[in-house]
Amino acid sequence: MPSLNIKSIKYKAMIGTGGIGSGTSFLVNGNHTLGREESRSGRFLERKDYCKLHIIAHYVQTLLGSDFETIPIGKVGDDDLGKNLYDEMKEAGMNMRHVMVSPGDRTLLCICFIYPDGSGGNLTPDDSACSRVDIPFILEAEDEYKRYEHCGIALAVPEVPLESRAKLLELGTQYYFFRAASFTSEEMNSAISMGMLQNVDLLALNLDEAAAAACIPAGKNPQEIVDKAVQTLSQINPHMFISITAGKEGNWSWDGTLLRHVPALKTEVKSTAGAGDCHFSGIIVGLTAGLTLQEAQDLGTLAAALSVTSPHTISKDINRETLKQFAEKVNANLCDNVWKLLQ
């Protein structure tokens, strides 16, 4: 895939930390939500599951090309899984000098449970190699920030300790990076109380995480959750962009002035796992290429819609050419700037 013209893009590198690992997928029988003490039958699926940092970094690197440098910061175990993931990330073009083996620890392996309607969730171990990504390890990458001062993206996503992600965002602030982050529902209150959102320029959430941020039940009407979350979060950081995804309900973006909803594109759904991370990647790519938040939202919507046609959480067929072909197939309503990006 040809690179974008490096002179035409706003940022030249992304330095990020978060989970590097895999998962096993289990399809449960029945669409009703699992009960606390319920036993449910089902079956394991033949699909590849990846963790957040890997998913986001893969799409950013693939869509922006080799002139853009993607630098993940993370740890894997001294096992075959860790070696295979390392090799896959390197093959995608990432700079792997800050991904290390953590002796005696296992590579992160999550359990993904999926309902027949395609929705689902993840169970994530908290004692994997990812948990060893501490503040001193983050600081070892400070020279990378110095190289890209004023022209980099700092990415902080789940599956490594919050304190380490906070330090990465602080480095991003120190070196004038654009700072992007996401948090799990259970982390949201801690992230807010730690003041992490003051160091975030783009916050990406799903509907459950938005409900946690707004301190309201996740079962409420999606628009009500989004409105309350935007109100709450914009009071904490009025300069922060917000992206909220809600599966078949579409997604919302907030740029400090305009709350915009985009419906989900209709397509064949094989799995929704990883779609939110793909959407997040699309927004990062769009902003890097100089698009407005609303234009980048459309790119994220397109990328997420194509990602759900794959059973895997990383669809390795996605690139700018396949996104263009998919957009034409589904007759996506894209502005000229997005079409130009896909050329």
**Beta-strand content bin:** 15-25%
What's the CATH first level? Alpha Beta
> If you compute it from the alpha carbons, what radius of gyration comes out, rounded to the nearest whole angstrom?
19 Å
Q: Note the main sheet.
A: 9 strands, mixed
| Large-scale geometry | globular
Please summarize what this structure is.
With about 350 residues, the protein is α/β, with parallel strands linked by helices. Helix content is about 35%, strand content about 20%.
How does this structure look, described?
It is a single chain. By secondary structure, the protein is an alpha/beta fold. The protein has a single domain, classed as Ribokinase (UDP-N-acetylmuramoyl-L-alanine:D-glutamate ligase), CATH 3.40.1190. The chain has 12 helices and 13 strands. It has helices at residues 52-64, 80-91, 135-139, 142-147, 162-174, 188-193, 207-214, 222-236, 275-288, 293-307, 320-329, 336-341, and strands at 13-17, 21-28, 42-50, 69-77, 99-102, 108-114, 120-123, 152-156, 178-181, 202-206, 241-245, 251-254, 259-262. Strands 5-4-1-8-9-10-11-12-13 form a 9-stranded mixed sheet, with helices on both faces. A 4-stranded mixed sheet has the order 3-2-6-7. β12 and β13 (259-262) form a beta hairpin. α1 (52-64) packs parallel to α9 (275-288) and α9 runs antiparallel to α10. It is globular, with a radius of gyration of 19 Å. The mean pLDDT is 94.
